[in-house]
């Protein structure tokens, strides 16, 4: 599959919308609402719908029912994400280590300490390492199952990860022997696999190789 960035930038929202419609069960009403949200923010990108529970409509004066549609909100958020420059974590070693250490207690398996690893933040980290965890097809199936389960439980699901740019870096450990341990960002990886993306932002830790057996 070609990466998202191989497409013309202006086609990205429609490309992502087609994926959402095909895989997430979006019908004509939802698709129409998404396009309305996208179009409403195009003339003036400073006028974007904000998630204000007290607001009946945005400054475009759209009907309440349309503003309340999740499809409209997704459209506005997708336009906002596309208008913003890519974000990444600060490059300072101490800050990278702090971010990694915050996930260590829950996700680390105890075979190394965060400050023993070599950490780097990559704005365009390849997805290939995650194929050591699951195949692309398995990532996509897992992501869609997670989305369906969330929607059935009354939660929003993960459509936003398909429709918007993925800006928050995933955090993973790449062991010298080829193993990969994802600490944070499973759904972001699954969405990137579904979109056919080639890269995503990532905070990568490479722990020291184990000492040779005497």
Can you give a write-up of this model?
The protein has 214 residues and is an alpha+beta fold. It folds into 2 domains: 4-83, no CATH class; 93-206, no CATH class. 42% of the residues lie in helices and 13% in strands. It has a 4-stranded mixed β-sheet, with helices on both faces. It is elongated, with a radius of gyration of 19 Å. The N and C termini lie far apart (46 Å).
Number of domains: 2
The average pLDDT score comes to 76
Structural class: alpha+beta
Task: Report the major sheet.
Answer: 4 strands, mixed
**pLDDT under 50 segments (min length 5)?**
47-59
The fraction of residues assigned to DSSP E strands is 5-15%
Counted by DSSP, the helix tally is 8
Give the overall form.
elongated
């Amino acid at each position: 599959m070609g990466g998202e960035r191989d497409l013309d930038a202006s086609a990205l929202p429609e490309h992502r919308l087609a994926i959402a419609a095909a895989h997430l069960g979006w019908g004509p009403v939802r698709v129409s609402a998404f396009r309305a949200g996208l179009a409403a923010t195009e003339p003036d990108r400073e006028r974007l719908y904000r998630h204000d529970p007290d607001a009946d409509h945005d400054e475009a004066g759209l009907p309440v029912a349309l503003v309340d549609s999740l499809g409209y909100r997704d459209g506005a958020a997708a336009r906002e994400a596309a208008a913003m420059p890519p974000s990444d974590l600060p490059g300072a070693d101490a800050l990278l280590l702090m971010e990694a250490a915050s996930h260590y207690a829950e996700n680390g398996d105890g075979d190394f300490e965060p400050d023993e690893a070599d950490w780097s933040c990559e704005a365009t980290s390849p997805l290939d390492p995650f194929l050591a965890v699951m195949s692309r097809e398995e990532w996509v199936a897992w992501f869609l199952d997670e989305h369906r389960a969330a929607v059935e439980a009354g939660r929003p699901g993960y459509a936003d990860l398909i429709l918007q740019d993925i800006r928050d870096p995933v955090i993973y450990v790449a062991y010298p022997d080829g193993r990969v341990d994802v600490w944070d960002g499973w759904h972001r990886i699954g969405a990137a696999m579904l979109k056919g993306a080639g890269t995503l932002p990532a905070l990568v830790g490479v722990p020291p190789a184990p000492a040779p057996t005497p």
